[in-house]
Amino acid sequence: MDVAIETHGLTKRFGRRRALDGIDLTIPPGQVFGYLGPNGAGKTTTIRLLAGLLRPTAGTATVLGLDVVRERDRMQARLGYLPGSFVGYADLNGEQYLRYLANLRGGVDWNVVTSMAKRLDLDLGRRLGVLSHGNRQKVGIVQALMHRPELVILDEPTTGLDPIIQQEFLGLVRDVRDAGGTVFLSSHIMSEVEAVADHVGIIRDGSLVLVDSVEMLKRRALRRMDLTFAGEPPQSLSAIAGVRELTVSGSTAHLAVEGSTAELLAAAAPHRIEQIVTHEPDLEEIFLSYYDGRG
Amino acid sequence: MVANVFTKTLRDQRRSLIGWSIGITTLVLVEGALWPSIRDMPNLDEFLSSYPDAFKKAFNVGAMTTGTGFLNAELYTLVLPILFLVFGISRGARLVAGEEESGTLEVVLVTPVSTTRLLLGKAAGLLLGLCVLGGVTGLSTWLASASFSMGIEPWSIAVGSVSMVLLGLEYGFLALAVGAVTGRRSIAIAVPSVAAVGAYVLYVAGLMVDSVSGWLPWSPFHQALAEGPLASGLPSRFSLLVLGALVVIAVAAPVFARRDIRVG
Ligand SMILES: Nc1ncnc2c1ncn2[C@@H]1O[C@H](COP(=O)(O)OP(=O)(O)OP(=O)(O)O)[C@@H](O)[C@H]1O
Ligand SMILES: [Mg+2]
């Protein structure tokens, strides 16, 4: 299998409303793919099509090499899935619920369940009906990962999780990738995707507007820098290609650079730089620009 | 332990089955306890003939001078059928449509379990639940017959119970099937309820209006009740009820497999 997920012209209409409009996506195995987009963009629709819960209006999708319509059950057997609004049986406790799903799937190593529950600080003995929102979400995460699937599709997995558990969760996601698996997760939160994803896709109004690696995005992103000179910062800085938002306070120039910093550094070097502080590139801005249609 | 969809369905019914069993047992025993005083009414025949004709036909009032006829008229022709219908329809509507509306179906479907296997597992669970209620109905009828010397043959009791189970099955499976096709519990309750009322009206009309009587065999109530339903022979008409129940599931399965699953 050389692709984990592949779609061609994937389209979904609800009545007259077009929720998804010809998505072409190829995701190779062994990576974490972050799927971003504003509310109502079509993230959940894409995910539910891939999980075999919706039927495409047009186009095709294969997951792990299996057609999501014609080979749905075989595909679902190998998939881990966390819905956007996960709901389990309120009258079962965590262990009963997960054992039921494990029985439906077969071949689940229960040690995996207990160790994951421990990592996420989840009490399997309590009924789902009395669990807090975040703790219920943990049950959803465990059921999606417990059979060690080759591909995990997660719809906004971190909703309701506190920051510490979010970190644990991201660790679980990395573990899947390190074991050669693929993770497809949707989110609104760029920082979360940035922390774990290798590639991102941005969807808006049912169309993919960008698919790229996080590394490439970072290279293209605005990088904020503070340059402190021995004397006055040179006037010529603002004329350099890619430099934005230049402000000067004393002997320090605060600025943002788009793309390569080579030209800036070459121009600044003759002016006796005392200190350079570079901030992490801010992907958020790129995403906001795509979100509201400027991108 | 919940090992599969079938056992999960049974587990979900257990409380409700206990409640319904207690209710049905109480009802049958109380009704049976009335029998000795009815039987000993000096002018029973006269009293019965004063009923309106329609009533006499629908409930076979003429046979009420025996214990079998009494229970047929008092319980097995209307009250018990309604109870089995309510149980079958309300449980059947919950199985797929209810689970889909609550959102729990979503994760269960993204497993190796196909929509058809899920549907069949749930249907089997509902069938067994109805059989339990049928068994309870039969046992309590036998107990009432023995305690109040009603003289009802065990074989008749078995046939009567089977008839109740099959009525519940027909409309319970219809509710399950409509739920699997639409994903909406309200529709899954409404369709079989309306169908049952229609079939009952057809049954009663068929008994009274000659021009309608040709349609009688189409009514599941006729199929289930015509012989008693506490009766000495197992009517071949029962097979129509089984057939009807199987057909609605068979029609629903491919639709369920092809339609979108709704989000909670
Ligand atoms: N069953 C449905 N019937 C009609 N319209 C639907 C249905 N499901 C989704 N839609 C519409 O399709 C569009 C895409 O919805 P979707 O749930 O995929 O968005 P999303 O990207 O997941 O949004 P969010 O970030 O809010 O979760 C929305 O306009 C939504 O209203
Ligand atoms: Mg969504």
TrEMBL record, chain A:
A Pfam family recorded for this sequence: ABC_tran
Keywords assigned: Antibiotic resistance, ATP-binding, Nucleotide-binding, Transport
UniProt subcellular location: Cell membrane
Family matches, as Gene3D superfamilies: P-loop containing nucleotide triphosphate hydrolases (3.40.50.300)
Molecular function (Gene Ontology), one example: ATP hydrolysis activity
Lineage top rank: taxon: Bacteria
Gene Ontology terms: cellular component: plasma membrane
A Gene Ontology BP annotation from the UniProt entry: response to antibiotic
CDD domains, per database record: ABC_DR_subfamily_A
Record's bilayer topology term: Peripheral membrane protein
InterPro entries: AAA+_ATPase, ABC_transporter-like_ATP-bd, ABC_transporter-like_CS, ABC_transporter_ATP-binding, P-loop_NTPase
Domain ABC transporter: 5-230
Family: Belongs to the ABC transporter superfamily.
Name by which UniProt lists this protein: ABC transporter ATP-binding protein
Classification of source organism: Bacteria, Bacillati, Actinomycetota, Actinomycetes, Propionibacteriales
TrEMBL record, chain B:
Transmembrane helix recorded as keyword: yes
Transmembrane stretches, start-end: 17-38, 58-87, 123-143, 155-180, 187-209, 238-257
This protein's UniProt keywords: Membrane, Transmembrane, Transmembrane helix
One MF annotation (Gene Ontology) recorded for this entry: ABC-type transporter activity
Gene Ontology CC, one term: plasma membrane
Protein name listed in UniProt: ABC transporter permease subunit
